[in-house]
Every structure is written in C-alpha cells, then in structure tokens.
What does this fold into?
Amino acid sequence: MLFLGIFFVTSWISGFLSLNQIAVNVPRQIPTAKLSSSSEKATSNQFCSATGSNHESSTLVPKAFNAVKTSVSSAPQLLNSSDNDSDFANKILRSIRSGLPPTLRNLFRLPISFESPKRSSNLSVVTVRRDETNYEVWIDNHLIANLPNQLQASVMQQRLNKLLQSKVSDPSLLRPATVDGAPAIMAGNRFLLGVNKEISSNTTRSADLIAIDWVNNLRSALKAPKLSLTEGQQDMYGLVYSNEKLSGLASWYGGYFHGRTTANGETYNQNDLTVAHKTLPFNTHLKVTYTKTGKSVIVRVNDRGPYIPPRSLDLSLAAARCIGSETAGVVSYEAVIMQPNQPKMTLNAPLASKDKKKPQQLAVVSEF
It folds into this structure.
C-alpha cells in the first residue's frame, strides 16, 4: 500500500508539472494599446504616416485586413512571456518534498529542470496576439513592432531576449542598416533583426521606415535617444554629405503610376522613398528639404521626370508625406547629393570570399 501511495503521489505531481509547462502561454498582464477598431494597429514613432486628407488609405491598416470580415474583435492574448513561468511549479515541488521523510525526497528529484536562465536585465519581452494578422512585440510598456504572424513575432522575441541577456551596455549602438539588400537592425556590428518581404508586403509602409521605427522603439525602451528620419536613413544607406546642392520646385506622383515600370526598369512603388529627376544618375541619393517646414527625407533616383516646368523633382507619395508636401502638391525645396562611404554588408561569408575583385565593397557581419 505504501508503494502504491508513493506511486500515486509521484504520478500526480509529474502530471501537474507537465500541465504547468503547457500553461506558459496563460496571460498575466497584457500591454494596453489604443485600438479604435478591429482593423487598426497599435503603433508608435511612425515616420511619414498618412494624414486625414490623403487620397490613400491609412498606412496603419495592413492589406490583409481588407479581406477579413469580423463583427466582434477577439480578445488580446498574451503569448510566450519571457517572465519566470516556473516559479509556481518550483514552490509546489519544494513544499511537497520538504514535508517528506529524507528517504523519500529523492523520489521527487525529477530529471526536468524548472529553473529559468538567469537574466542580466529586468526587462521582459512579450508577444500579444491582437488577431490572426496582428502580433505585437513589447518590451515592458514599449511597443516594438507589429508583425503579420506568430512565427515572425516569435523570432523577434527570441532575438530581443538574446539582446537583453547580453552585455550590450550602450543601446545607442542600435541602428538601422542594409544587409544583403534588405533593411535590418544592427547592434553595433552584429545583425539583430531584418525586415523581410513577408513583413513589408503586409502593410503599405516602406520597409526602410519600418526598420527605422523598430530601431527607435527599441532605443526608447532601452532609454537611448531616438534617431531622426534622415539620421536613420544615413545609417541605413551608409551615406555622407557631398558639396553638390540643388533647389527648385518638387511635385509628387502616386496612384496612377503605382505598379508601372520606371525609367530604370524597376516597378514604381508609391510607398518607397524614391524620386524622379531628368538627368541625375540612377541610384543617386538626395536629401530633400521642404523649405517651408524644414522637414527632410532621403530619396533615391529611380525614374525620369517631371516634365512640367519649372518642376525639377517628382517625389514618391511616401516621400511627399515625409516632408509634408502631399497636400500642397508642389513645393519649394533644397537638396544635397549624398555619397556612399561604407561597404555593403552581408551575412553570407562564402559570397564575400568569392568577390575578390572588389574586396572593400562587401563586409561580412555576424548574427547577434
């Protein structure tokens, strides 16, 4: 009978602890976010947001939401909290073992460890599911990013946990960059996160702007100063100022040309930060400043135009929003030509080793 009693108790405790492992995703405290409707995301620090007078829909609404018809919003759900989820199980185990005779305590030494790894930071990373196409990643009370699915959110959460557990003492080292042709976040010289096509194609926001927003959200959560839009763009594209300047009138073009082929063979995307100019070489970067407001944005030449004098620049819709010229339509500007001063970055070491003709044009970076 004693043996059966011991077997019953140990089986019950093992089953309880297994259930406790499954219950890691039970919500404790869900970060609050202002949601005016089921289709509006919680966002922060967004550059170049659409205004109420725009002809386009709000950049806060992802494309996927248009196909989803729900009459009642589902309740937010906290997923994969990085807090210590095993404390309760450990207390139960310790209390039961302490009440047993010494000869029986070893029966409760289970092979599974319930001790959480030590964290070097008191900050916690959590994922909140707002609905099937909107997952939020938070650090304490700071919204870091909106992501289209749980897999993307889990990857970001794991990377940010690594960041918080590391000895990165200076959060001002967090900066945007371009790695293998895609916008990314760097922690010093190490790759932390990337904005892939699955993320950027789910919204009407430029992938470049998303990356800069993520960086500023992270810097804010870690008590570091935010970057201005052009500061973030300079870091991302690896640019410095030249002595070449130009000025004149700038217009913008949008929906009618969206999806058409540009003069350099690209597909025009009104949400990218690009510009048309009659003669400047393709891929030239310009820092354009609206003289009335002082707002600036860095754009890349990928098209020819405008052909209505005396205009000399034709901005994309997103670029016009960034400097506040969308409503005015045609505005006076001053611009500076920017020059690249950094090698391109890659995570592909074999690719870099094969590029022997241009050894200084490709820098290998390691993952965080």
Observations:
- The chain is about 25% helix and 25% strand.
- The domain at 240-340 is CATH 2.40.40.10 (Barwin-like endoglucanases).
- The mean pLDDT is 78.
